[in-house]
Amino acid sequence: MNITIKHSILLSLFLLAGMSLFAQKTVVKGTVTDAKSGQPIQFVIVAFPGSDIGAETDANGQYVIETTIPYDTLRVSFIGYVSQDKKIKPGQIQTIDVKLSTDIKELQDVVVSGQKQKYRSKGNPAVELIRNVIEHKKDNRKENYDYYEYQQYQKIEIAVSHVQEGVEDKKVFKKFQILFDNIDTTQLDGVRILPLFLKEEMSLNRYRKKPRATKQIITADKTVAFAGYVDNKGLDTYMKYLYHDINIYDENVTILTNQFTSPIANAAPAFYQYAMGDTITQNGIRMARIDFFPRNTADLLLQGYMYVSLDTNYAVLKIVMNVNKKINLNWVKDLSIAQDFIMNGDQGVSLVKDQFSADFGLTKKDSTMGFFGQRSVFYSNFVINKIRPDDDYDGEPVVYADSAALHSDIYWEKNRPIALSKSEASIYTTMDSLNNIPAFKHSLNLTLLIFSGYAKVTPWFEVGPVGAFYSFNPVEGFRLRFGGRTTTTLSKKINFESYVAYGFLDEKWKYYFGTTYSLSKRSIYEFPVRSLKLSYQRDTKIPGQENQFVQEASFFLSFKRGPNDMWLYNDIYKAEYFHEFRNHLSFSVGYKNWTQRAAGSLHFNKENYNDPSTDIDYVRTAEMSAILRWAPNEQFYQGKTYRTAISYKEPIFTFRYVAGIDGLWGGQYAYHNFSASFFKRFYLSPIGYTDITLTGGKLVGQVPFPLLEIHRANQTYAYYFQSYNMMNFLEFVSDQYVSLYLDHWFNGFFFNKIPLFKKLKWRETASLRMLYGSLSAKNDPAKTDGLFAFPITPEGDQITYALGSKPYIEAGVGVVNIFKFLRLDLVRRITYLDHPNISKWAVLASVKFDF
């Protein structure tokens, strides 16, 4: 064998040995944790630099990544943390645990650097990729499937955050030491938090495209209870709304009651900047990272990054986002959203992990005490396009299995996709113990008084509302009132409510008594309600305002501008049957016997208005009524005696019919009154939203002016959405009309671009009120004899009018979010400026706490 052949053989053996060495698999696994808290970090990207090979940490912070290529470096990166490079040994199986340190400036630095450079959308590969994502949104939504099913686990937690060291040693908390045993420092970057509320829920969910239907069967439910003080179902509804599903494939996403333009909305490239990041391969899918941030950091927009599949689907497979601290968002110190998706075969994605965390406080300083809220959702067992019979979607859209609240701790430990922390696991027993401590009950009672106006004096009776205990007006003078209501502790089927009041000027007693009885197995307050209500009331009212000012006899509403001495004494007997359906269709039928007597300078007179000798003693009506209301998919927070809407995605329709019957139990007039209204909120993110209410009505029959449509006016210094705020009481009457209420919230869209206003966090509003109406000749005392004369002043000046050919119009602009709760409106009356005692301009105030 010659030297050449020997060299060839040796070279071949050397190459084969080298190939064998290089072909050995490199496997790296480990756990990524927060360097300060030691808490595992989910969604961390682990990759080999310069390659498209990557992996992601799971809910326990664990990862596994492998390759046959001899890389010697591993890069670990996550938004908000300092990236780390770790040396590895090619061809070996090894464990490398990584502790990441926080870098809260990372995302802000990306925004700043992006603004320093001249950003261009044209020719930007990130923008081109985003446009492909937008183009394929419809195909990737789960709503694109004909049928879709999955199982879901949801956990919602509320905790006091930034609990200072030693606060548990203070005397005021001496009786609550059991609560401080649950202080946790692992969930919020080493910050001391104190869990107060925890809710877990497991459910089976179904979706059908045509006809559209959803069904959620809650198979397991576990919630911290505050029995007797908080309506748990109402609180549950509000929590689900506050931390509801965020679908980035929608044009706008709602976060803490505010609308944000999605980073993949159709118009998103006009509001966001995009930059390309690394490309990786995970589970055989090649993905590209895209960083996104607002063009204007003060707009209601999001910032973060997403991973998009580089195939024909262009699906978002991962997104991590938060909001800039400069944004006009109240009470929020920090907020983060992280979502993970998986591919469903060749097309479409399913959300598998969803976590929303928010740190709240009165200020945005990290050291101040506040609240921490977190919603974690895990989705599994997806079933696509399995046809089910219609019966599987019938009935209520959300139902509870009979055993939902009966599962043992062992069941929960076995079926939770992620274990509870030590403090979370203890909260159920801790709160049960606290509910039995008198001092804790007193604290809850004080909270009830502050937020509802009622104070619990016994387990079955509450006194209130305290805001109505003292008031004043020109007819009654100084007025005292005292009342209360029973609670569900006395009975879930029946409720009693009453008050008594006395006016020191007119020296008359007023009183009310009402009772409501549930005709279903549910409480009289629990949706869907089916109840019978009987009541009697003797009290004063302003004509036309009986449906507007629910607590007219409150101290703050006692202050009014302009003359305000035309009132009514009322005796009202009412009976009403109310029936709600699960589809949010409801109806009521009722009877009302109403006696009105003029009070103050108001007179019922057919001849000389200011001649008391010709006054008519009273007007009595007997009315049968029917009301039909449809509010599809309405969401609301329901307390013990009230209901507050918290979502306005769908329109609300209301139809009302009232028939006055002459001769029935003293009724003096026969008439028919028809009305209908339409309400809809239109979201126009990022420039806010508009509320529109359109109402029309017609009265058929001849009646005196107290029975006409006395349009809802407002002479208080408060701004009312369902009133004409520059109209005087009793100023306009009609028997047919059409009205428009329009209110727009800009949410700081303009102020955020002005340096001074940007810092103040104020927000802008605009409003418009229009009223078209007319009065037929048979109901106009100027054209028909025998009718009650319209009210006039003692000097003979007219104060009540029929609308002419032109509409009544008022418009205004406002500033919201002053001190985070105050709203001031500058309102201008535009038409009918020649009427006496009217105001052309007014500054009106209102209060609202919102994010």
Ranges with pLDDT <50 over ≥5 residues? Answer: 1-22, 104-116, 547-552
Span between termini: 87 Å
- Number of DSSP-assigned strands: 44
What gyration radius follows from the Cα positions, in whole Å?
A: 33 Å
List keywords for this structure.
single chain; 851 residues; mainly beta; Immunoglobulin-like; 4 domains; 10 helices; 12% helix; 42% strand; disordered N terminus
Structure commentary:
The chain has about 850 residues and is mainly beta. It folds into four domains: about 5-100, Sandwich (Immunoglobulin-like); about 135-255 and about 330-435, no CATH class; about 455-655, no CATH class; about 670-850, no CATH class. It contains ten helices and 44 strands. The strands form seven sheets. The chain has an 18-stranded antiparallel sheet that branches. The N and C termini lie far apart (about 85 Å). Mean pLDDT is about 85; it is low at about 1-20, about 105-115 and about 545-550.
List the helices and strands and how they pair.
Blueprint (H helix, E strand, L loop, with lengths): L2 H20 L3 E9 L10 E3 L6 E3 L5 E6 L5 E5 L6 E4 L5 E3 L2 E3 L5 H11 L8 H11 L1 H4 L6 E15 L15 H4 L13 E15 L4 E11 L8 H11 L9 E4 L2 E4 L10 E11 L2 E10 L8 E7 L6 E7 L9 E12 L5 E13 L8 E15 L13 E3 L8 H7 L6 H13 L3 H15 L2 E4 L2 E3 L6 E4 L3 E10 L7 E10 L4 E11 L11 E12 L24 E15 L4 E16 L18 E12 L4 E4 L4 E5 L4 E9 L10 E13 L5 E12 L8 E2 L21 E3 L1 E10 L9 H6 L2 E12 L26 E2 L5 E11 L3 E8 L11 E7 L4
Parallel strand pairs: 1-7, 1-8, 11-21, 38-41
Antiparallel strand pairs: 1-4, 2-3, 2-5, 5-6, 9-10, 9-20, 10-11, 12-13, 14-15, 15-16, 16-17, 17-18, 18-19, 19-20, 22-23, 23-25, 24-25, 25-26, 26-27, 27-28, 28-29, 29-30, 30-31, 31-34, 32-33, 34-35, 35-36, 36-39, 37-38, 39-40, 40-42, 42-43, 43-44
